[in-house]
Every structure is written in structure tokens, then in C-alpha cells.
Specification:
By secondary structure, the chain is α/β, with parallel strands linked by helices. 47% of the residues lie in helices and 14% in strands.
Length: 725
């Protein structure tokens, strides 16, 4: 493989050519890990390894597609081996082996929408409501039950017939059991498997059928796993199982980019890899080919404030660039305006819109930027989200307001069962036929039939009361909006569902209404505001791909842009107000690090004064102070008195964060310990709130969850020290 074909630095070459045994690559942001993985595949093929004997695991289908494209360009062959996500891999295995667990090859993979449809049937059959358990909590409960008790659960799903499951379902009395076994019953009846089932059934097949396991172990002579810092226990177990024959495992990851612990990811699998796989070779990729030295300086300063990490610094390869810019603004609207102005400046300088991205902690923060971009006629797109005024909860709230004025069929159909009022398809069809026969709107048809037997068991009367008697003339728009959301019960339903993102968006809508009132003064009317919002939501949609991209930092992981605008850097926003522990705060800092390292040439950091949704004052984020106020060019700067106030508040909040110190020995995740009975082991995790310590002992095949009172003697330093560069 010639260097002319694809340049690799010394450490990348080492990673590519170290083919045998266990290899751990600690790859910093922008260090060319995807290129290294693709080149390693090509190198293995050059050695004579057949592509079908190479397994490459990524975390997203998009990443798998990119890997496939790179490999095809290198090996000039359509055959690229197995490049897939964990779920895709398990689905492939099960299509071939599902007969072992009495499932057809044509099983259905269930997504969250399918799960909710099943839950809806279970709830209806048992008279359950969202007060008993929201769908979101029910999905979480089912997932926890499956993972926590997976040997028993998988056994029931596989061995019990639909009739036996139905009997167990009928005998359930506790809400959790009713929902769980009802879900299993419908699942088995429809031969459906959710994401957890895919990996759980695959592991069951491998454990109970050694010959089948060996067939797949023998097939994959070389296994490569990307983003290993995001791996969860079941995925780890699957990888550990598949390498048992050839023992060739190549993993790539960066502890500083662990941002999915809420999904079960455990960075200890990367940090402790050499302990689980003796003889591991560790290679560092620290050269950064993406960002300017100025951007990397900010990134290095920021992430250095985390304690639970491998101490390493990204080394810039790119030429020096412009200073990192930052701004403190009087309001989110001025922040959005400043971002838009800078985007326009960069566009004038030759930057393409699609090479610029606005990143934020949560989607509800996008509205002020969207307003400014639309006003400036700058095309944009929301990635993994929809434009603010096109989001379901926003459209529903506006439709309620329009019903007060227009009472049209479109808004009627959107609102009549949001929330549910027992006016189903049959009754809607009746209204449509009646309206057509009598030349009425659907709302008029409802009024004429309101007191007939057909609508006695519905909540139609309360709906009509809302539309007819909510005063809107000569009233503040914000008060009308508040009253509509209260009287309709829509906001209450979202709370019962635990849909915090949607509630945040509604709060942002109220803020937008308040700002409109302030801007337009006494002459503002509900009609004018609705027209104003309609222009925002129904604006011309450009078909050109050249658009500024707006997305959360989570969605930006793995991407890069010439210019990045990281906005909303306020305490309670980024870091999130939900951050309660030291470990959670470190994850928030890692998330900010991911945001910063998406930028190639231009980085713009911003925060704004004003009020949080909680009603408290916005303060600059601690991450700005972590980066160092002197390391960026401030236009405008944070006032000195605000810097001091923010510093005091951050210090107070930091003191309130809960850590993992659970035992007398001040134990931490990663410590080597000794137990009187189980012997030596390593701490994988600690849960201060639950008083539990998870330990993997050398003498045991599986981990153990012990009480915090367990007598564990610390016998070694933190695992991180074993792989210092």
C-alpha cells in the first residue's frame, strides 16, 4: 500500500499494520480514525484476507455507509465484508439462526412507534391510562426489565406459546406486570422483536448453541469496532463472544467523546480494555487534521478540566487561523441576530451555507436563530428535527388559537383529539358526511349534533366550550395562549407523557408571543400574530442543498464544518439544568468538547442574558470560563460584574454536585480492589444514590453489583493511569 495512494502518519501506519491480537487505538477528535479504519481493511485485503471474513462495527448506519464508500474506493471492489451497526449485525445473524428460538426469518423489527401502538392496545384492554404510566416510562420499564432479567425474559419469549403468554398476561395484577406481559403477548403474537431483543436473542443462541457460536466466530477472522467509548454491556458481551476463536480485535475510541452514558454506554470498557484482554497494544492518534490551532487550544483547555480521562492533547496539523470569537448578548434574539450577521459575513467571504452549522444543547433553543435567518433570507435546515413552527406541538397550539378565529376544518381535525376526547374515526366520518350533506364546516356539524346520543360519551362539549367562550378580542396574545393550552388539556397531557422537550418548545412559543407583543405594542392582535407565524412556517422552501445546518450537539457527533456557531452557553442550558453529579457534569463538558471540535476554520461561541424557563436569570456557562475568557476574542464581552456573579453561582453549584465517593477508601470507578471471598477485581461503576458498586472480579465470568457497605480494599491506582500516553 503506497503512501502516494493515501497519506498516513506514523501512528496511523502503526494502527493499520498491527493486524494480529488485541489493538486499542485512542483516537482524538479529527485524527483521521475513519481513514485509518478504511486503510486497515484495505491492508488486510492486501494481505490476502477475504473481505467476508472481516467484520466492521459502527454505531450509525450513516457511518457504515461512509465506511463502505471509502473501502470501495480503496480496494476497487464491491465486496466490503460486513460493515454494520450492532443492531444490523444481530438482525443479520437472527435471519439465519431464528429457527433456533422458534421465530420465522420474516420477524418484524419494532421501533418506538410500533411499541407505542402495542402499549395503546394493552392500555385499552386493561382500562389503563397515562396516569398509571406514560408510554415513555413504560418503554423504559420494559427495557429495564428485559436487560435486568434477560435470561428469564428471553426464556419466556422463546419457550412460551402465545397462549401461555396470554395466560400469564391475564393473571398479572400489578401495573408493571400487566404492561410487560401484555407487551410480550402482543409481541409474540406478531413475531416482533425490538432493538433489545435483537442482541438478547443473539446472545442466547450463542450461549446455548456452541456450534452456532463457533460458526460465526470462525467466519469473522478480524473484527474492528469504531466509537468503542459508546459501547454498552450487551454490545461488549457480543464482541467478547465473537472474538473467541481468532482473538483479533481492533477497537477505536476517544474517552473525551463519551456522551451517551444515558443510553447505557460505559467508557470503562475502553479504559479497562487491556485488563480484559491481556497483551493489548495501545496506539494514540493525537494529530488533528481538522481544526486550526486556535480552535484546538480552546478544545484542549476545555476538556483538561475533566478529571476522569486520559491526559492527552490534540496536536494541530492545520495552519494558523482566525481567533475564536465569542459574544455576550442582551437577549437570545440579539444572539440569534449576531450569529446570522456573522453567517452573512462568512458567506460574503466565500463560505458556503452548507459548510456552516449552528449547534445547541436542545432543539427548543433554535427559534431565535430561525427567526433571524428567515428575516435575512438565509436558507437553513433543521437536522434531526423540524423547523420550530412546524413542530407538532407548536402547530397544535397555533391550531387551537386559529380555531378561536376561523373554526376551519383543518384546525378542527388537528385539535379535536389533541388530547383525546373519544371522538374516533367513526364519529369523524359521521361529521364529514353530515357537514357535506348540510354544507357546514365540521365544527358546525359538531355543534348541531352535540346533544345527540352519538356524542354523549365524548368530551365534545368541553371542546365547544373552549372554542366558543375563550375570550380573545383585545387581549394579550400570551394570555390567550396560556388559557387555550390550559383549557384544552393539551399541556397537561404532555406533562403526563413526560414530553419535556415539547413542553420546552411551548414555553419558547409563549416567549415568542411575548416578544411580538413588545415589538408591536398596543396594536397587536391574535389575528396579526397568527399571520406572522404562518409566514414563518409557510415560507418558500429552497430546493438547493446549500443551507445552514441547525442541530443539537449530539446530532453533530461525527460531523465537521468550516464554521461552527455554538450557542446557548448558559448555566442551566449548557450544562443542562438536569446535571446533578460530578460524572454528569463531566459528560456535559465532553459534549461541549464535541461541539467545539466540529469546527475546522471558524468557531463562534455565544450566550445571552435574560430568563431561563425556570424564571431564574441566565448566567454565562462554566465552559466559557473553562476555555479561558482570554483565549477568545469577545465582541461584546461579558461585563465584569456578571463574570463575578457567574463565578459565585458556578462555585456554589459545583459544591452541590454529588460524586462517586461511596466507601471508606474513597473508591472510584476504575480502582483495583480486593474482596475477602471474590478476590481481586476492578470497579466498573458506582451509584451513589442507590448505594451500589459494580465490580468485575477476576475469578468470576460476570460482573457483580455489591452494596456500598461491602468491604472492598483498594489495592491499585485508577485504571486510567495504565494507559497514560
Amino acid at each position: 500500500m503506497s503512501s502516494e495512494e493515501y497519506f498516513l502518519n506514523e501512528h496511523q501506519v502503526q494502527a493499520v499494520e498491527t493486524t494480529e491480537g488485541y489493538v486499542r487505538v485512542v483516537a482524538g477528535a479529527g485524527s483521521g480514525k475513519t481513514r485509518t479504519l478504511a486503510m486497515r481493511f484495505a491492508y488486510l485485503c492486501e494481505m490476502g484476507i477475504l473481505p467476508e471474513n472481516i467484520l466492521s462495527i459502527t454505531f450509525t448506519n450513516k457511518a457504515a455507509g461512509e465506511m463502505r464508500t471509502r473501502i470501495r474506493s480503496l480496494v476497487r471492489d464491491e465486496e466490503t465484508g460486513t460493515i454494520s451497526t450492532f443492531h444490523s449485525l444481530c438482525s443479520m445473524i437472527l435471519r439465519e439462526e431464528s429457527h433456533i428460538v422458534n421465530y420465522p426469518k420474516s420477524f418484524v423489527v419494532l421501533d418506538n412507534s410500533d411499541i407505542d401502538d402495542i402499549l395503546r392496545q394493552v392500555y385499552e384492554e386493561n382500562g389503563l391510562t397515562l396516569r398509571d404510566m406514560t408510554f415513555s416510562k413504560a418503554r423504559d420499564m420494559i427495557e429495564i426489565q428485559k436487560i435486568k432479567n434477560h435470561p428469564e425474559y428471553v426464556q419466556e419469549l422463546v419457550d412460551l406459546s402465545p397462549e401461555q403468554l396470554a395466560k400469564k398476561y391475564a393473571q398479572s395484577s400489578e401495573v408493571d406486570d400487566i404492561i410487560f406481559y401484555g407487551y410480550l403477548c402482543f409481541q409474540k403474537k406478531n413475531f416482533g422483536l425490538d432493538y433489545n431483543d435483537l442482541i438478547l436473542l443473539t446472545l442466547k443462541i450463542f450461549k446455548e448453541n456452541p456450534q452456532t457460536a463457533e460458526k460465526w466466530q470462525d467466519r469473522f477472522e478480524y473484527i474492528m469496532v469504531d466509537e468503542f467509548q459508546d459501547i454498552d454491556p450487551l454490545q461488549y458481551e457480543l464482541v467478547e463472544t465473537l472474538v473467541q476463536v481468532h482473538h483479533n480485535l481492533f477497537i477505536v475510541g476517544d474517552p473525551d467523546q463519551t456522551i451517551y452514558t444515558w443510553r447505557g454506554a460505559n467508557v470503562r470498557f475502553l479504559l479497562d480494555f487491556d485488563r480484559r484482554f491481556p497483551g493489548t497494544q495501545t496506539i494514540f492518534l493525537n494529530e488533528n487534521y481538522r481544526s486550526t490551532p486556535q480552535i484546538l487550544n480552546c478544545a484542549n483547555e476545555l476538556i483538561s478540566k475533566n478529571k476522569n480521562r486520559i491526559e492527552k492533547y490534540l496536536i494541530p496539523v492545520c495552519e494558523s487561523g482566525d481567533a475564536v470569537r465569542a459574544g455576550h448578548f442582551e437577549s437570545p434574539e440579539k444572539e440569534g441576530g449576531a450569529i446570522t450577521a456573522r453567517i452573512h459575513e462568512l458567506s460574503e467571504q466565500g463560505f458556503r451555507y452548507k459548510d456552516m452549522a449552528v449547534l445547541y444543547r436542545a432543539h427548543y433553543l433554535s427559534r431565535p436563530v430561525e427567526d433571524a435567518l428567515i428575516e435575512a433570507q438565509i436558507p437553513y435546515t433543521i437536522c434531526s428535527g423540524v423547523p420550530f413552527f412546524s413542530r407538532e406541538e407548536i402547530k397544535t397550539a397555533l391550531a387551537y388559537c386559529r380555531m378561536l378565529l376561523y373554526k376551519n376544518d383543518l384546525d378542527f381535525l388537528r385539535t379535536i383529539n389533541m388530547p383525546a376526547r373519544n371522538i374516533g374515526k367513526g364519529r369523524i366520518q359521521f361529521l364529514k358526511e353530515y357537514a357535506e350533506e348540510h354544507s357546514l364546516t365540521l365544527y358546525q356539524a359538531l355543534i348541531e349534533n352535540l346533544h345527540t346520543p352519538r356524542f354523549e360519551s365524548t368530551q365534545a362539549e368541553s371542546y365547544v366550550e373552549l372554542v366558543e367562550h375563550t375570550a380573545w378580542q383585545a387581549r394579550l396574545i400570551t394570555r390567550v395562549l396560556d388559557e387555550v393550552l390550559l383549557k384544552s388539556g393539551y399541556e397537561k397531557e404532555l406533562r403526563l407523557k413526560g414530553a419535556q422537550d415539547r413542553l420546552d418548545n411551548l414555553a419558547e412559543l409563549k416567549q415568542a408571543a411575548a416578544e411580538y407583543e413588545l415589538s408591536w405594542g398596543e396594536d397587536t392582535t391574535l389575528d396579526q400574530w397568527l399571520t406572522h407565524t404562518a409566514l414563518f412556517s409557510a415560507g418558500d422552501q429552497s430546493t438547493a442543498a446549500d443551507r445552514v445546518r441547525l442541530m443539537t450537539v449530539h446530532n453533530a457527533k461525527g460531523l465537521e464544518f468550516d464554521a461552527v456557531f455554538l450557542m446557548g452557553l448558559n448555566e442551566g442550558i449548557f450544562p443542562s439544568r438536569q446535571t446533578k453529579t460530578i460524572q454528569a457534569m463531566e459528560e456535559e463538558r465532553r459534549l461541549a468538547f464535541v461541539g467545539v471540535t466540529r469546527a475546522k476554520k471558524e468557531l463562534y461561541l455565544s450566550e445571552a442574558a435574560g430568563l431561563l424557563h425556570s424564571g431564574s436569570m441566565r448566567m454565562p456557562s462554566r465552559f466559557l470560563f473553562d476555555i479561558g475568557l482570554d483565549n477568545v476574542l469577545w465582541e461584546p464581552p461579558i461585563p465584569k460584574n456578571l463574570q463575578e456573579a457567574a463565578g459565585r453561582m458556578i462555585k456554589m453549584k459545583s459544591a452541590s454536585l454529588k460524586g462517586h465517593q461511596l466507601a471508606e477508601d474513597d473508591l472510584q470507578a476504575g480502582d483495583l480492589v480486593e474482596h475477602a471471598i471474590f478476590g481481586r477485581g476492578v470497579i466498573l461503576d458506582l451509584d451513589a444514590a442507590a448505594g451500589k458498586i459494580t465490580v468485575q472480579f477476576d475469578s468470576l465470568q460476570t460482573k457483580r453489583v455489591l452494596s456500598a457497605k461491602a468491604r472492598l480494599k483498594k489495592i491499585g491506582s485508577d485504571a486510567i493511569s495504565s494507559i497514560q500516553h
